[in-house]
Amino acid sequence: MKISELMDALENYMETEGVSQKELSLKLGWTPAAVNDLLKGRSPLGIKRALHIAKTLGLRFEIGEEVLGETVPPPTAKE
């Protein structure tokens, strides 16, 4: 998934796992206010936060050619 899709995956995770914002804040090691601000769009989702969420919750996302530390080979040129 792309970093822009991570917020949808986070909300889906909360719904399917039955995790509240408070429980999510404990899992992530953040304050409940920080999680609320992120979910409401009042706080930006940067690469560091996205990586922390993905690693903590076992989600994958792409940053260019990098997938959580795995190098994805660049596309081959079509002849």
Which key phrases capture this entry?
8% strand, 3 strands, 79 residues
Concise account of the structure shown:
Strands 1-2-3 form a 3-stranded antiparallel sheet, with no helix packed on it. It is built from 4 helices and 3 strands.
Task: Describe what this molecule looks like in 3D.
The chain is mostly helical. Helix content is 49%, strand content 8%. It has helices spanning 6-17, 21-28, 32-39, 47-57, and strands spanning 62-63, 66-67, 70-71. A three-stranded antiparallel sheet has the order 1-2-3, with no helix packed on it. The longest helix is centred in the first third of the chain and has 12 residues, at 6-17. It is globular and about 30 Å long. The protein starts with 5 loop residues before the first helix and ends in an 8-residue tail after the last strand.
Q: How are the SSEs placed, and which strands pair?
A:
Layout (H helix, E strand, L loop, with lengths): L5 H12 L3 H8 L3 H8 L7 H11 L4 E2 L2 E2 L2 E2 L8
Helix pairs in contact: 2-3
